[in-house]
Design a protein that fits this description.
This protein is an alpha/beta fold and 378 residues long. The chain has 2 domains: 236 residues, Spore Coat Polysaccharide Biosynthesis Protein SpsA, Chain A; 96 residues, Rossmann fold (3-Layer(aba) Sandwich), CATH 3.40.50. The protein is built from 12 helices and 17 strands. The longest helix has 23 residues. The two termini are 34 Å apart.
Length: 378
């Protein structure tokens, strides 16, 4: 069902007409009545003049290049929607992506929603972003298949990339928009999402929304690396104390347990559930900031990670010391032995019931799990 409230889509453009025109044409087909505002940020190749011919887009033209953050903020001041969808000019929205993002923003406590960003070959470019203690950002799931259940389930993330990010207008304006201290670009999206989190609003990944992103289509990779290095210092000076207990990003791609630690750094309470989708659903509804992984059953809410590993022992080995508690009514002796080796820190709960939330909270409190609302946060 299409949301009653339509977002305004804000697209900053800086040259590369061949790519930008294609992205805008796709957006025209899939905006579904949404207002579209294009900010031509002093394009050097005549893109602004070409955009003048498109009456179906509102156009803002800059005489000088002000950068991504300032251009987005300019577009926001012209927008009439109660939500802003910031979209890069090299990002192509898939059918239904904007509707899915708007639905993800509906629950209380959610301030921003991000799609699964895809590479041109259909693999994941980013299923939400994580931030390490060194201030470096990490694109979760990069290179994996777009439907990989380890990455593509609805969950809270540190931040969503500015390549496509839907934000509540009221929150965006209250926080003063993107911080232009990061001009001309990079880290303003992560900074905004952390400021949202400080105000009590989460950023969520909505994998049902998919957007193909070319990356570096309006600038060189070398230039991007220079800006990232510079702005990372600014970002870390501001957020270093908050991130101090996080894993480091270095080598995360090389080691499955490191990338998993970054994925779940934001969720310090983690439940591993075997063959009980109702219990997994109840845990998710009670502990809103927890991570719940269900093994052996595909029937589960969107916010539960569903896992059916071909080699369970290897899968658990890649998640050593990861979970806060293991919940299972009955386990094979060999699996108990594997859990003893891979999750020795996690208490086993054999008789947890989804029938009573109060009893479940009490049962888990007895093994050291903090009650909902008091759980530690990464």
């Amino acid at each position: 069902m299409t949301p009653a409230v339509k977002a305004s889509v804000i697209v900053p453009v800086h040259g590369n007409w061949a790519v930008a025109s294609r992205a805008l044409e796709i957006l025209r087909e899939r905006a579904d009545g949404r207002e579209v505002i294009v900010v031509d940020d002093a394009s050097p190749d005549g893109t602004g003049d070409r955009l003048e011919q498109h009456a179906d887009f509102a156009l803002v033209r800059n005489e000088r290049n002000v950068g991504f953050a300032a251009a987005c903020n300019q577009g926001a001041t012209r927008a009439s929607g109660s939500r802003f969808c910031f979209l890069n000019s090299d990002a192509f929205v898939e059918p239904g992506a904007l509707d899915a993002l708007e639905r993800a923003l509906e629950p209380a406590g959610v301030g921003a929603a991000a799609p699964a960003l895809l590479n041109q070959d259909g693999t994941l470019q980013e299923a939400g972003g994580a931030i390490g203690s060194d201030g470096a950002t990490f694109p979760l799931g990069r290179g994996h298949q777009a439907g990989d259940p380890a990455w593509c389930f609805q969950r809270e993330v540190d931040y969503g990339s500015g390549a496509c990010l839907l934000v509540e207008r009221a929150a965006f304006e209250r926080l003063g928009g993107f911080d232009e201290a990061y001009a001309p670009g990079y880290y303003e999206d992560a900074d905004l999402c952390l400021r949202l989190a400080e105000s009590g609003l989460s950023t969520v990944l909505e994998p049902a929304a998919r957007v193909t992103h070319l990356q570096y289509a309006s600038g060189s990779e070398a230039r991007a690396r220079t800006l990232v290095k510079r702005n990372r210092r600014t970002f870390l000076a501001r957020w270093g104390s908050r991130l101090a207990r996080r894993p480091i990003v270095l080598s995360a791609r090389a080691w499955p347990h490191r990338s998993l630690a970054l994925r779940d750094a934001i969720a310090a309470t983690r439940f591993l559930v075997f063959d009980d989708p109702q219990l997994a659903a109840t845990l998710t509804s009670i502990w809103r900031h927890a991570r719940v992984t269900l093994v052996g059953n595909e029937q589960a809410p969107d916010r539960v990670e569903r896992a059916q590993p071909e080699q369970l022992e290897r899968w658990l080995d890649e998640r050593r010391f990861h979970y806060s508690a293991v919940l299972a009514a009955e386990l094979e002796p060999s699996l108990i032995e594997t859990l003893d080796q891979t999750q020795p820190q996690a208490p086993r709960v054999a008789d947890a019931s989804a029938d009573s939330a109060e009893a479940l909270v009490a049962e888990l409190a007895s093994v050291g799990i903090a009650p909902p609302g008091m759980e530690p946060r990464g």
